[in-house]
Amino acid sequence: MRTREQYIERLGKMNRNLYCNGEKIDRLDERQQPAINVMALTFDAAWDPESKDLCTATSHLTGQTINRFNHIHQNKEDLHKKQDMTRFLCNKVGQCIQRCMGVDAANAINAVSFEAQKSPKAKTAYYDNWLKWLERFQTEDLVASCAQTDVKGERLKRPAEQADPDMYVHVVEERSDGIIVRGSKVHISEASISDEILVVPNRALKKGEEAYAVCFAVPSDYEGVKQVVHIHNTRKREHYQKGIEVGYTDSYVIFDDCFVPWERVFLCGETVHGGIAALLFALFHRHSYSGCKPAMLDYVIGLAALAAEINGIEKTPHVREMLSKLIMTGELGYAAGYTASDLAKPEVYMPGVGNVPYGPGSYIPHSIYANVGRCLTGEAVFHEQEILCNIAGGLPATFPFEKDLANPETKALLEKYLNRNPKIPVEEQIKFWLNFIDFGLSASAGSMLYGAYHGGGSPIMEQIAITSQYDIESKKDIVREIAGMKPRQGKK
Ligand SMILES: Cc1cc2nc3c(=O)[nH]c(=O)nc-3n(C[C@H](O)[C@H](O)[C@H](O)COP(=O)(O)OP(=O)(O)OC[C@H]3O[C@@H](n4cnc5c(N)ncnc54)[C@H](O)[C@@H]3O)c2cc1C
Description:
Elements: H1 4-12, E1 18-20, E2 23-25, H2 33-47, H3 52-55, E3 56-58, E4 65-67, H4 76-93, H5 100-116, H6 126-139, E5 144-147, E6 170-174, E7 178-189, E8 196-199, E9 214-219, E10 225-233, E11 247-261, E12 265-268, H7 271-311, H8 317-342, E13 347-350, E14 354-357, H9 367-379, H10 381-392, H11 402-406, H12 411-418, H13 426-440, H14 443-454, H15 459-469, H16 472-483
Helix pairs in contact: 1-2, 4-7, 4-8, 5-6, 5-7, 7-8, 7-9, 7-10, 7-13, 8-9, 9-15
Bound molecules: flavin-adenine dinucleotide.
């Protein structure tokens, strides 16, 4: 396992393929530092005696102790621990911990490459290639991001129907030594601070769409890959220091006729498995949300309760009601994820067939519960902001700038007029509101909310998964029997 220093040292040696605001930047550019701070915690936690058990696992390939973010879930307990690790680490930063995309994509490709290798038309030994990549990923303790979301062009057209065929990443040439891919994946979190990028398809695919059924891995500084990075940081502080400086990044990852050697290709042309790869990454990622969203709720509950305390309204009935709503959403999301772990099996849902064994035996969370949890908590994020806004009042919207708070001419006056609770030193109140503003009223907050709402798939995607996989007919049967109606045809 690596230390944070080793992770950062390797980033410093990578090629320059990051573009940000008109400049070409280094991985260790000052603006990337807050995001690197967050990722580095995933290394610290694996060494810390207090969190070691939660944040490490035993590799099924080598028997070595590895970071849990690089692990393939071998049983239900592994999924429980991934959920709890995610909540634990997100609680340290009050936002996304940023490393779950890699573990979720790895678990999806692990199952898909195993099944696709059995195909008589397989272009290469997908699973053998995968296991080689995975062993290095685990042994070198690499960070991977997952590039699933395509730009998608005209939303109602399928990949092969688009006027521009590059709207979905696809294979433009197959060669004896590898493939050439073209297209752009978008909103790819932490690709600018990861070692590797795992690429998976974005949707279910059908005959004629073989070129889009492609899974592969490339180093994130690879030749033929350009990243246009959006960095989300909060306003720097000079006087009122934070406990930790956090940030995050998202990239347009552009594959500009990028050559990928066969040993890094894990799927190429098998449309059924391409669709399952899309579904499985989304499923594992929605399960990760059952760790991070409850953690975000933990943070929102803390913000709401402290704002109420500072405002002296914590015992009022409307505040109690709002706090109970936040608690219910967070803990229901957690419970859904817990159940998804507990009912996990090495099985996948095949449209028209139902659940079938899939993959080499690694565990896949229960789809209904993972989707229910992600949808419930994802849809709630703007309502959570409404609750924070309600409790805080207008103060965060016009809060004085830090330099005015520190200026000897205005400091004492502002402290006098900002003080709302004699039991809490005004300096503490100021630190709290500056943090509240970072969370809810900054540019960084806006992007985070969009990520929390759409990441892992917009709510409509979960609703489609839920309604297409849920046994609604059996519910009609319950009513038919109680109402004395005839049983459905074919039902005993
Ligand atoms: C901050 C952030 C971080 C992210 N990180 C990652 C990441 O690390 N990796 C990754 O792969 N992705 C990532 N995503 C992408 C995320 O998964 C997508 O935003 C999400 O899947 C929605 O896709 P979209 O943004 O293209 O929106 P769209 O799919 O365009 O949705 C916009 C609207 O159009 C509707 N719509 C779209 N298509 C159809 C259709 N065919 N029929 C009817 N209605 C339709 C949708 O329901 C929605 O209402 C991230 C997103 C954000 C905001």
